[in-house]
Amino acid sequence: MNEIIMKIENLTKEFDLDFFSKKRFKAVNNVSFEINKGEIISLIGESGSGKTTVGKMILRLLKPTSGKILFENKDIWDLKKNEVKEYYRNVQAIFQDPFSSFNTLFKINRVFNMIFDNFFPEEKNRKEKIEKVISQVGMNPTNILGKYPHQLSGGQLQRLLIARALLMNVKVLVADELISMLDASTRIDVLNLLAEISEKTGMSIIFITHDLSLGYYLSDTTLIMYKGEIVEKGDTVEVYNNPQHPYTKMLLNSVPEIDRKWDKNEKFIPETIIKEIELYYQANKEKSTIYEAISKNHYVKVKK
Ligand SMILES: Nc1ncnc2c1ncn2[C@@H]1O[C@H](COP(=O)(O)OP(=O)(O)OP(=O)(O)O)[C@@H](O)[C@H]1O
Ligand SMILES: [Mg+2]
């Protein structure tokens, strides 16, 4: 049976539109989904669709304007100080730029020791545990531990961030554009590593990306975001094989295929998709629900 670890309920985040006016816009609008133990969910959408904003709210870096995030049935904004620390032991993130996640003044062994100082001060077998997780992410601890972050590559630093999550035994990992700065073969290595860890340890992963092929490769469940809203969600294979929302269809059509050359007659005009979505919602306006079930595990937004 699926065990729900996190519940996102009607999450909304408004920002001021500009400095002078009082107008606000919804970067994230009424987003709801659940995360099961060991599930890999990808959050896919174009630049500016609100993916990172959702990630930041999950990490308590941004407070929602409305809506709730429940972790193990508790609202993460109702946690007491010591519970917040426990939350961060369980929920961690890896952001796009691995260099910014490391303090440049500390060698890697210091970075890992600090995890123990902060979260497990009683732990006796520090060295052994650190070496174990570094080996688990495919690196040689003796080559890595005495180095400063700037002496390592982007791929090595991302592996270390994964090692850190392993050491902390996190339950939910938010990976925001994790591998976008890695070359193709290192990417697959890191993706395989994530999948393997999730399967072995039951770690859930929220994989934020705008790369559809990476999402397909890795995730069990796919959420498609468009202008702050989830327009389609469900089982990854179902969503990709039977897309329903015009935006999802457009996204899937715009993936360059390895055997298809660029065709100068094929123009992408953003306005056409906006219009198409308008017409689609218009055609469905009599429907009684906002999200329609296509199957037990596949939903599409049918009206505004
Ligand atoms: N602190 C902020 N103040 C005002 N507007 C913000 C803030 N953070 C994000 N936004 C706006 O909210 C929208 C969503 O941003 P977000 O970073 O979540 O997009 P994204 O889907 O992660 O995009 P990308 O793929 O480019 O990373 C954007 O229009 C962005 O400009
Ligand atoms: Mg982002």
Short description:
By secondary structure, this protein is α/β, with parallel strands linked by helices. The protein has helices spanning 51-58, 81-90, 108-119, 126-136, 141-144, 154-168, 184-201, 212-218, 236-241, 246-253, 270-283; strands spanning 4-16, 24-36, 40-45, 66-71, 74-75, 91-94, 172-176, 204-209, 221-226, 229-235, 291-295, 298-301.
Structure description:
- With 304 residues, this protein is of the alpha/beta class.
- It folds into 2 domains: 4-219, 3-Layer(aba) Sandwich (Rossmann fold); 243-303, no CATH class.
- 37% of the residues lie in helices and 25% in strands.
- It has 11 helices and 12 strands.
- α6 packs parallel to α7.
- The radius of gyration is 21 Å and the shape is globular.
- Magnesium ion binds at residues 51-52.
CATH homologous superfamily descriptor of the largest domain: P-loop containing nucleotide triphosphate hydrolases
Termini separation: 33 Å
- Rg measurement, Å: 21 Å
Largest sheet, strands/sense/barrel: 8 strands, mixed
Uncertain stretches: none
Q: Total domains, how many?
A: 2
> What is the typical, i.e. mean, pLDDT?
91
Which small-molecule species are bound to the chains here?
A: adenosine-5'-triphosphate, magnesium ion
Proportion in β-strands: 25-35%
| Strand order in the sheet with the most strands | 6-7-8-3-9-10-12-11
Overall helicity: 25-40%
Count of DSSP H/I helices = 11
- The name CATH uses for the topology of the largest domain is Rossmann fold
**Assigned CATH class of the largest domain:** Alpha Beta
Q: Give the total of beta strands.
A: 12
**SSE series:** EEEHEEHEHHHHEHEHEEHHHEE
Which class do the helix and strand fractions yield? alpha/beta
Shape: globular
CATH architecture of the largest domain, by name, is: 3-Layer(aba) Sandwich
